[in-house]
Design goal:
The protein is an all-alpha fold. Helix content is 73%, strand content 0%. It has one domain. It starts with a helix and ends in an 11-residue tail after the last helix. The longest helix has 32 residues.
Length: 44
Amino acid sequence: QKRDKFINSVSFKATNGAAKLMLNADKLTLVILGQPKVGSSKYD
């Protein structure tokens, strides 16, 4: 029982981590393409 909970939480964290990585990759792609001028002080 405990082991199942542990595995579930680990896979949940892994899924969350992957989702965040993908979001960050999307942001990076947008930055590279030069689209997002909002919220990035670098391009002011």
